[in-house]
Amino acid sequence: MLVRSTVAAARQQNLPLQRLLSSTALLRASQCRVSHFATSAPRRHISSTQTPRPSTKRGSKGLPGLERSLATVVEEHRRDTNLEIPPNNLYEHKPLIISEPVRTHGGSFAPIKRSNKLGLPSGVQEMLCVYDACIRVGRLERAMQVLKRLQPVLPPRDQVELHDRFLEARLVQMQDAGPGEDLGDDLHHWFEVQIRSHHLPYTHDTIALLLKASLIGESSSMPLRVRRYMSMLEKETALETLYIGGLLDPDELSRIAQVCPEYNTQALLQEPAQEEADDKYTFKEGKSPSSPVPQVMVTPQKGVGLKMLRETLSIFDEIPQRSSIHSLPVSERQEIQSRLEEDCVEAAAKRWKEQNQSLMDMGLNSALSRPALSTKLYEWHRDLEQRLVKEIALVEAAEASEDKSAAELDRCSYGPFLRLLPARRLAATTIISVLSSLAVSGVAKGSALSVVVNSIGSAVEEELRTQSRADELKKGVNDKVALKRSSRNPRRFRSSAPARDALAAGPTADGSLPTLPTTDFSWTTTIRIQVGCALFQALMEVAKLQVVREDPKTNTLVSQTQPAFVHTLQFKRGKKIGVIMPNQELVDMLTSQPDPNVLARQLPMVVQPAPWTAFDRGGFLVTPTSLVRLKSGERDQKIYTEAALARGDMDQVLQGLDILGKTAWTINRDVFDVMLEAWNTGEKVANIPPLNPVFNLPPEPDATGCPVQRRNWMRIVKRAENEKAGLHSERCHMNLQLEIARSFLGQVFYFPHNIDFRGRAYPLPAYLNHMGADHARGLLMFAKGKPLGEEGLRWLKVHLANVYGYDKASLSEREQFAVDNLDNVRDSVANPFTGKRWWLQAEDPWQCLATCFEFARAMDSADPTQYVSQLPVHQDGTCNGLQHYAALGGDTWGATQVNLVPGDRPADVYSAVAQLVEELIAKDVETGHKLAALLTGKITRKVVKQTVMTNVYGVTYMGAKAQVEKQLFGLYPDLLAEAGLDNMHPVSTYITHKIFAALANMFRGAHDIQAWLGEIGGRVCMSVTPEQMADLFDGLEETSPLPKEEAEPTKRKPWEAQSIPALFRSSIVWTTPLRMPVVQPYRQVNRTLVKTCLQDLAIMKPDPFDPVNKRKQLQAFPPNFIHSLDASHMLLSALACDEQGLTFAAVHDSFWTHASDVTAMSHVLRDAFIRIHQEDVIGRLLAEFQVRYRGSYYLARIKLDSEVGKRVVALRGKKTGARLLRELKEERDRQRLLRSPDPKEYQRGKEMVTPTSLYEQFSQATDVVTEWQNPEAGRGGNTLISDEEDVDDIELSAGASEAPKTEEAESDEAESAEADSEEAELEARASFSRILKGKSTRPSIATTTTHIWVPLTFPDVPAKGEFDVTMLKESKYFFS
């Protein structure tokens, strides 16, 4: 994220910047309490103590022996997931209060436009990354140049953060230099000249670094300097703050106390308490194998990962007798976990060398023999390492050169990043990334250059982050004091001090808050591309192959050196792109000797995950992980999330993820043995695909025969090939899962979680987790067991019926189902494949088999109620999205159909909708409707289920038609012949219309809310904020804020030339019930030209200044809003279950716990749902939108035949040009005059006539065309303004936004392909049909309406029905 976007993004976004969250009242209500800094002089002398998030740990009164000393008060900073959660705190749903938005002040910082003679990059984000790289490798002179160039464009607090990093790096150099006189003079001089003289708001870290510098050496000025810097801190909390910061060790604090005896350090220097164990209960260990476990039969594949995965998992074979890792000390488990997370870079290089030496010893790598792949990889790695050493030397020469050539300027761009890793690791990472990219796309096909170089750049960045994290852990592993202090201040990372100080500074005189620093050092796409190109160019120079061929004339073998990779240009989809083609010799080698050097780091953890404490701190110990899952380049959500974290608003979300992560799992050995036996047969069993599937294909027709028959035959063959490839892919994936399960037999492991931008939680381990398919869930069981008890035995029986598919019956009938099938259960356990195979008939066969083992053992025990069960028992919601909609809309009928209303039997909403559709069809039959007569009796539950399920999540009308059509083809293949139709479109259209009508009738309130959400979302997406208008009309700076010698005219257009659609940059943003900000990421991403050493590449580069994609924003808003509610419900339930001591896991709307705890969890689920919906959720959303988008204007459609429409047309007359922009400026001027205290100006404003003033005077409620009245709403993006109305104003200016027509990255095509859904294809087909029939594709609304700017207001919330959500307390089938 460009640092400037901290300020500027607000102008282009939907908030006055900084209106990052909802309100100052929300800040006061949040869990993050801040204290004001005291100022003891006119300049900013700061001091603070950050009160911890009280929700993360029980207060001192609840912990015996915890006293309020300086050593223990800071203990509250620690987020210890093992401590008991205080009552009525974290798991309590806290009301969200909306009042005044959080505002900050700051100017608009224009971006730097071009590189300078020093070879520094042009973008602010790129310069930040260069600065970070220079600081990391100690090249402080270069860092000073970058910092000087950045100063004019950065907010003050971001400048201080960079200064702090510079001071810390310089301090490290001083310490390495050894003792001496006045070594810290240059640091003190830097502080005075670069910080104090510029009146920058320095932080506690700044003071700590200066104190540390004062203590170095034997300077006589040391006492004077220490006293001076300590006077800049608040006396009462100075040492506590410095201690928490972690930059000063106890010895240094003692020396400070000797100089300043008025500061008491005794409490700070107490020995920290010993760490508690990471669990407080005894696991029922999974049984270790008593005999060797059979190997998992390998599925032939392209060699990407399986062998390396086996090598990584071989760490478990080092454990004596495969005993449980959980019995080892925590430190040893952490060491094992770190080894599991470390990647294969060093291992790959070492293996290449060993295999090459082994072949040399055997004489098998001579020049005229076909070389082994490992030999070539070793040679490439050796040569590439040497080549990179030379390249880094060239980079240093380029940076030192005064008159830089184009090549030297290029090296200055990517050079700093090549120094971050040793050349050996860079070389191995490059080779592995290239081979991986080729394997993914198909070795023989080659791969787009953009894909390859972006993969290399991303791999290098990930490698750097992993190594940095590992170094941090190794550095502090033996320092107990440092570890303890770090746990007391979990937000101790580089950007935390300015953020902490900004919040602790408190509101200013006008009630606003200072800007939160959001410095982000993650690499941009441009940097990744440039680094990847540099590394790949070096690889192409050294990667050679000895190609041996037989001379056709002499029949002798001839050897020739050829390049391993060739960079060429190809035309794809009408565009010229760069392609990397491997040598055919390399293709043959990779096919016959696949190199498996791509390792999935994200395996289950053998220790509890690290608690989440920051956006990038939590989950895995070594592997860097983000709290929120974001696509590359999406930064809006990160800004909002980090602001919420800094304020403590996301405590409940963080704690909920920690609770999900600390659930301990183990492999179900009984199910694994059966699954492995089935797998190794190679046959299809349950959802295991066959190893060699057989398809009955029709005979190939004669090539000279009917072309239609041959085309149909080719279509059948292609469909069979696609299905075969899909089955092979599934089997390869299951192969990895079984290998992991085999290695983790008898072990206790954990799944760290993070969330998507809506707040939904997902496990981080990619292959084996409880969100997988039926077989993955059947393999997993809780590591901790609990006696069943009477209730647990009852729920175990119900669970058996549920996984078998008998889940529409009453609970008592489900219990009886288990009892009646006890013989089948025992037969399934004793003879899984040779008996009745009853379990294979289940809806979820592997989960059914797991339940059979548990149920049979319980019933065969002496006392079934005392059987210790580890099986997770599920409670699933009834179409959970509709449950939330029914509660929001108050629909009693709809609530009954989704089991919110108590009933004797579970209701089935899909059957109810099917019945209602049948009734609607029956009415049409009475009128003689032909299709209705044809479809009578054919509308089953299966026909409507998918459409009903996805309707709540935003399926379009065309998408629903495709769903219905698919079901009709499957159920009634002869329906077309019966109807005498050529295609199914008329039938699917008719049924889809009836399904939507039935849903609208059954969920009337929910339907109204969906329409309301679409309307308010549409207005936001067509709005312009006050900050944007100020930036647009108050004069754009004509020069960049650069040093005089670098200044150049800006290329920003005057406001008259601005494109109207480009103004619409306001994403839809809201806050979940758990105070997580949600930012919809859908924008119209433009292409950017990146110049590299290989060629120019046009890449997709997301930017917060890109206009929003209205179609995606509108289509996604209702489903994303519902997803954010069900995510809040899940996390709130997790907090409450943990408070009651229940083991908890979840798959979105399916919640798991022990059988004995299901009743308690059921009460928790109902209580959490009621807590959320007892509040006015929609009313709160409206209030938040009114605050967040206050003062904005949106472009509304007004009917031309209305009174206001006629007057607007008359006012405009024949004006042309930038009409809409001119009207917006006039209205802004009018509002400014009306707010003026000068009576004359006020009168001038009152006399002004604008389209908006006419709207305010003459409009009626029906004059504005709503989104749901607009046939283009949600379909065409920002294309709602007609060409006839103002062509010059609203054209998209494609030439200005597109990059030059050069290379097209395949990654670009992947981005754009996201929008090319099946629904869009069907819509295009329908549009084409209309053209063929002579019908215009332009909706008539374009000629009957006109656009005007109106104040952004929102319609009233739809009236809510009479359903009382508290009724579900008595509903047995709400979750069952």
Report on this model:
The chain is mostly helical and 1376 residues long. 49% of the residues lie in helices and 8% in strands. The protein has a three-stranded antiparallel beta sheet with strand order 1-5-4. Strands 9-8-12 form a three-stranded antiparallel beta sheet. Strands 15-22-21 form a three-stranded antiparallel beta sheet. α12 (306-313) runs parallel beside α26 (707-743) and α17 packs across α21. It is globular and about 95 Å long. The two termini are 45 Å apart. Residues 1-88, 100-113, 271-289, 364-370, 477-518, 593-600, 1036-1053 and 1271-1336 have low confidence and may be disordered.
Write a short abstract of this structure.
The protein is mainly alpha-helical and about 1400 residues long. The protein has 54 helices and 25 strands.
Task: Describe the secondary-structure layout.
Elements: H1 5-12, H2 24-29, H3 70-73, H4 124-137, H5 140-150, H6 156-177, H7 185-196, H8 204-215, H9 222-230, H10 238-245, H11 250-259, H12 306-313, H13 330-341, H14 345-362, H15 373-400, H16 406-418, H17 423-441, E1 447-448, H18 449-476, H19 480-488, H20 496-504, H21 525-542, E2 544-550, E3 557-563, E4 565-572, E5 575-582, H22 584-592, E6 610-614, E7 617-619, H23 636-647, H24 651-661, E8 664-667, H25 669-681, H26 707-743, E9 749-750, E10 753-755, E11 761-763, H27 774-779, E12 780-782, E13 786-787, H28 789-804, H29 811-820, H30 822-830, H31 845-860, E14 868-869, E15 873-876, H32 880-889, H33 892-897, H34 909-926, H35 930-935, H36 941-951, H37 957-971, H38 975-979, H39 985-1002, H40 1004-1021, E16 1023-1024, H41 1026-1033, H42 1060-1063, E17 1069-1071, E18 1077-1079, E19 1087-1091, E20 1096-1100, H43 1110-1139, E21 1145-1147, E22 1150-1153, H44 1158-1174, H45 1177-1188, E23 1193-1199, H46 1203-1212, H47 1219-1234, H48 1239-1247, H49 1251-1258, H50 1283-1290, H51 1294-1297, E24 1303-1304, H52 1306-1313, H53 1318-1332, H54 1341-1344, E25 1345-1351
Parallel strand pairs: 20-24
Antiparallel strand pairs: 1-5, 2-3, 4-5, 6-7, 8-9, 8-12, 10-11, 13-14, 15-22, 16-23, 17-18, 19-20, 21-22, 23-25
